[in-house]
Structures are given as structure tokens and as C-alpha cells.
Amino acid sequence: MPEILLEARKLSFTYPGEDGESPPALEGIDLKVAAGEYVALIGPNGSGKSTLLKLFNALLLPTAGEVFFDGRSTADARNIPYIRACCGMIFQNPDNQIVGATVEEDVAFALENQALPPPEIRRRVSEALELLGISHLAASPPHLLSGGEKQKVALAGVLAAASRCLLLDEPTAMLDPAGQAAVLETLQMLNRQRGITLVHVTHFPEEAALAHRVLVLHGGRLVKEGPPAEVLADLPLLRALGLKSTAAAELAWLLREDGFPLPRGIVHNRELVEQLCSYARRI
Amino acid sequence: MRSITLGRYLPGSSFLHRLNPRFKLLLLLIALAVIFVLKTYAGFSLLFLLLALAAAAVRLPLRLLAGMLRPIAYIVLITAIIYFFFTKGGVVLLRLGPLTVEQAGLSAGFLVIMRLLGLVFMSMLLTLTTTPLDLAQGVAYFLRPLGRLGLPAAELAMIMTIAMRFIPVVSEESQRLLRAQMARGADFGGGFFSRARKFAPLVVPLFIGAFRRADELALAMEARGYRIGARRTRLREEPVTAADWGALLLALAALAAVIYFRL
Fold first, then answer.
1. Structural domain boundaries of chain B?
2. Is residue A57 within 8 angstroms of chain B, CB to CB?
3. I want to staple A225 with a disulfide (CB 3.0 to 4.6 A). Which of A63, A215, B52, B121 is the partner?
4. Global pTM value
């Protein structure tokens, strides 16, 4: 049994200030994320994806139920520094999460908050910059960077703080294709080589397909979870929620409707191509 | 638009650039004291000779110097005229109808001009050789003792840092809003007042944007473990070197000399 890093138990959350009539943002979520797992979180706008992320690192506290990080409840204020140090968060807009006046100062921000000695900060900052391949930007002011570079700076800032877990709130939504590819590649590298747990909120089915497990949220409830091949191949469900699957899954669905003998569970382009080629060879 | 420089920082690696910002602020303070104690032409000549040497060390372009002195030229001129005509005493040097320029007025006027120029010149050297960020950190350092009186010095420094970080971002946003309005046919020409009126509709979205940005930034800072009032360290602790102490002692010695020799 792998170690459980994140856990939600009967978790419900209602935003304060809303009148009693309004539905809770999240309701009855039971969820476990193992250490080293890559989980994608999909769902329509307002389904509670971002809220769930914020509950994981104690930016929000549950109205009912509990959230645990590494066995420690977020409800206990004494656990919060530990949780925040281990559980980094990346937001959609790279501009609004960079604090420092230069790249290296921003990367150092979380470490400065942990009151580490300056030589230690210096060492970890250079390590993180090197890991993400942005050492050459160390002295640059953030507003001169491209979107993809800014998102890498944000990632470096989180990694420098020795994060075990990354909570990603649509990190590629504001990037161009090159920036998106760079960030996704970095995320996969971090997950595979460093065993960093990822919880990735996304609107892009192609990104969700990269995860080990996909969770579908709708109206504050967890409506489906499973490996991408299972969840992203369930087109009736996704369509009912106003979502789309990957291009390959959509196309495979249409082909199967037309009588092509394709197996279920095709989500990647490569898989579809291989199936079609083997089909072509057979006829 | 892409290369906004704040303040008048002149990148370089001169002796003045390398001094610790805190010490530079102290040096400025001592230099101000020197300026107000100085009262002889010889003393001022010596001071300006030193300042000229410092400017040369910083490689201050003359064009920049002239540009900075222009705005204060009027102040200097008006002050000088007031002193020349209204401070009385000594030999009458010039008579213009009912107005006279007397010796005491002339020397008092010169003294004030020299002091003003010296003041501006020295603060200029400070802002030219210190980044606004370092300057803010330096000021915050001296505000630290006021923490006991409830002044949140560390938080003030953080506010200044963030403000400087976001000036280019907000200025880019204002440009974007401007272009968006122009794309819909808005005309931002005309005289000063009509232009000011036309800019008003830009201010509201700019403020709303800034508030939204502030909200997100606060969340991001909290997510990265920032807590108000908690102890923090800094990546770049400006080192205090022997040169810093040397400069400070030299400045104090100069002040003592000026007082002792009545320069």
C-alpha cells in the first residue's frame, strides 16, 4: 500500500458570506492521493476544482469533514507552516504570483519565509533554477519574461522550498503552445524523476490524459474517478457535463459509432494511430 | 515600455555602487550636516571638488546631470534673488531704484545656492548608485527600532518591494487599456484638461484590475508560507565591508574637520 499524502474525509465547503440558500462549493468529498501520484482534476467552471486545491494547502479550511496532508489535519494551525512548506501551489496567472523584483529573489521568497540562513537559500535557489533550466534568468526582472518562463519561475520558487507536492491550478491556461509544452514537460519530469505528487486542475483533456488518475468534479461532488483510459473514454458522461475528451478519444468514439472495431479506452493520439494502422494491416 | 527603469539608477560597479545601502544613507545624513555647517568659499570649493570626483568615479554623464539640475534651477534662482535683495548689511554693491544689493545679501545668497546645489547633487549620487529596492531595504532597516512602537518595518519593506515589482505590470496594463479604448474609437488628444478628463474612464478598470491582482498575489504569498509578523531571512543580505566602515569614519572625520577649522 503506497503512502497516502493527501486525504479528504467527508469534506464539505461553503464560501462564507453566502446566504444559507446557496449550495456548498464542495460536498461529501472522499479522496486519497498517494505520494508520487499524478492526479488530474477536471470539471466545468464552478465545479469546485480550485476550491478543492485551496483546501489541500489550508488556504481554505473545511466547513465539514477534514483534510489531511501527510497525516496532519489542515484544521490545526500548528500544521500550517509544515503543510505550506511541503505543498506548493501554482496559479493560473503567472504575473500575479511572482513577488520578487528579480527571478532569484522570487525563487527565494518561500525560503525567506521559512527563515533559512542566506547561504542555504542561495544554494537551494541555484539548484531549483538549474533543475528548471532557467539559471541564465536569475537576475532578470520578471516582467521581461515570457509566460512560460514566468510559470517556470513560479515552479522553481515552489521546488526550492523542497516541496513534496504541487497543487496546480490551470498552470498552462495563459501560456502559448511552446510555454504549455515546456511546463507540462517540466511537470512530468518532476513527477517521474523526483517523485513529486501532482494535483493538476485543467480544462485541457490532453493534459488530463498525462495523469495517472483523473477525477471529475461536478457541482461540488466527485462524480467519477479512474485512470485516463477509463474516465476520458466515457464520452457520454463528459458530454453531459459540457466537457470534452482528447481529440483521439473523440475521434475513436466517432469511428466506433461508424462501425470501426476499435477498443475502448483510447485517449492518446499515438494509441489511435497504432490501432488504425493495425486495423489497416488486417484488411 | 519594456524597459522601465525606476528612479534614476545608473548601473555600474563604482566605489559608491558597492557601498552598503544602509551606510550610504548614513553618509548622506553626515554629508547634509557638513553642508549646513560649511560657510566659507574655500570649504564649498573643496566639497564640490570632492563631489566632482565622485561623479567622475560613477561615470555620471554630463547630459544626465544637466537634466537633473534643470528642474531645480528656478528654485535656486528665486531663492538667490530673494536673498540678494532682502538680506541687508555691509557695503551697498548695487542700487536699482529703491532696491539695493548689499554685501551680506550677496554672501548669504551664495551660501544658499551652494547648499541647495550640494544637497541635490548628493542625493542624486545616492539614487544614481543605489537601486530603489536597496534604498527601500535600507530605509526599512533604520525604521526597525520603531517596531517597538508598533511600526511594521519589515512589512513596509515588503510593501515597497511589491510596489516596485508591480509598477511595470500596472503600467503595461494601463497601456493595454489605452489601446483597447483607442480601438473602440476613443480619442486621447486635445489640451491638458480635456485629456485628463478622457483618461478618467481608464482609472476605474485599472484600479479594479489592481485590486484583483492584489487578491491573487496575497493568496500566492500565503500559499508560499508568508505570515505577517513572522521572522524572515533575506537571500541577499548586503554585506558590511571594511570599505563601508572606512567611508563612514572618513565622513565623520570630514564633519569634525569642517567644524574644527570653521571651513
1. 15-261
2. yes
3. A215
4. 0.76
